[in-house]
Amino acid sequence: MNHQIDIAIIGAGPQALTLVTHLLQKKPALKNRLQVFDPSGTWMVQWRQQFAAQEIPYLRSPGVHHPDVKETLFNFADHRQEELYYPYNRPGTQLFQDFCETVVDRWKLRDQVTAAQVVQLTPLAKRFQLQLDTGEQVEARRVVLATGGGAAQVPGWTAEVNPHPPGRLCHSQDIKLPKLPDLNDETVLIIGSGQSSAHLALGAIKRGAKVLMMARRTLNEKLFDAEPGWLGPKYLKGFQAEPDWQVRWQMIQDARNGGSIAPELLTQLRRLSQSGQVTFYEQCQVSRAHWQQEAWQVQCNVAKTHDCLAHQRIKRIWLATGTTTDITAHPLMGEILERYPNQIVNGLPVLDEHLRWPGCDLFLMGPWAALHVGPVARNLHGGRMACDRIVPALTKASVARTVIHPPR
Ligand SMILES: Cc1cc2nc3c(=O)[nH]c(=O)nc-3n(C[C@H](O)[C@H](O)[C@H](O)COP(=O)(O)OP(=O)(O)OC[C@H]3O[C@@H](n4cnc5c(N)ncnc54)[C@H](O)[C@@H]3O)c2cc1C
User: Fold this and answer.
1) What's the CATH code, domain 4-151+324-395?
2) Of 22, 223, 282, 293, whose CB neighbour count within 10 A is largest?
């Protein structure tokens, strides 16, 4: 491992892979000047694990969205057409993963990932110091944060639940369907109204459970998590012309609308509701949960008008309530925020046009770039849009900035 590098990329998910292919396409010589860090030591482990954990058969995004810049997924899928799902040729999970393996090989990136978690990021004069969990330290001239989403978001009432056995109250990030026992005749309460709630519901039903799906809104059916207009100028033009960051933030919330479920999954669940395997509780929220006599006693906020859950013997509560996007809570951002105070809008940072943190050569991808890239920032296509902004700054001297760090 080099201890003095030019570009350090933190995270080896699909967004980082997209960045590396785009960087090398533009400037192949960068190959020896960049290093990627991920605890797994390889590419896209988190992606693979989240698809396996929720037994997701195919992607929500169309096959045109992928990390490569040279080869299309459709060429690769020439003899695997049955793994492209209607509509919009959404790739099967295995097809997409196999394709990404060819991306890694095509760009000779197998050895590019150092197996380490970055535990601290310190701005030095003209460089950054990365403290690794292996005990080693690395200095990098430029850093890209591609660490994916934030921490699990959990409802307030979870802070007040009484002691309960392990596995009885879990966030979706911690649920691994293949590792679960048979759930025969168990009642599982799933909270949330996004795609993960649907995958988990189907997984629980497959294992014999009866599922209660609770959403604080009416379940929202949408093919993609944001309208396709957000992938191009149709909506982005107005978004990027909006000078008020608070308004932009609101536009992102409105576009994602608190999560949605793809139509075919919701249809499947509605069918299962006819046989009582799933019951929907919409416009309803838990206000209190108490573990007693081997089950959860759950009260909801409309208990005064209808007592929907009190009679249920709920064995498990699963929180499909998403993740937070608060850059000030990001474990690597403490010293950056201290040295380079910046405007933050409801957790999202205001960056320059190259997604660079004002004052230093730190670039942010994924959800952290949303105020610039828009509501799909965290998705595969968002990674590509982030590259369009970051790559010129990393490859062209004319747009690279001279960093003058304030004294420590
Ligand atoms: C279940 C699920 C399904 C999804 N399906 C789709 C889909 O079909 N289409 C789509 O476009 N989007 C989808 N998304 C959204 C998004 O594309 C994925 O979350 C995607 O994984 C984001 O890529 P990423 O590279 O930003 O983050 P990740 O895939 O999360 O990768 C980030 C990597 O950074 C590493 N990391 C984090 N902190 C550190 C650190 N301190 N040091 C070193 N490494 C670190 C992590 O270990 C991880 O490997 C889905 C999301 C989920 C949760």
Assistant:
1) 3.50.50.60
2) 22
